[in-house]
Amino acid sequence: MERKIIKTSDGSTTIQIVEWDEQYHSIHGAIQEAYHVFIKNGLSLFENQMVKILEIGFGTGLNAIITKIEAEKFNLNIDYTGVEAYPVSSDEISQLNYIEQLKAEPYENQFNVMHKSEWETSSFISDDFQLTKQQKDFMEINDKDTYNLIYFDAFGARVQPELWTESIFKIMFEALQENGVLVTYAAKGSVRRAMLAVGFTVERLDGPPGKREMLRARKITI
Question: Would 4 be classed as within a structural domain?
Answer without folding.
Answer: no
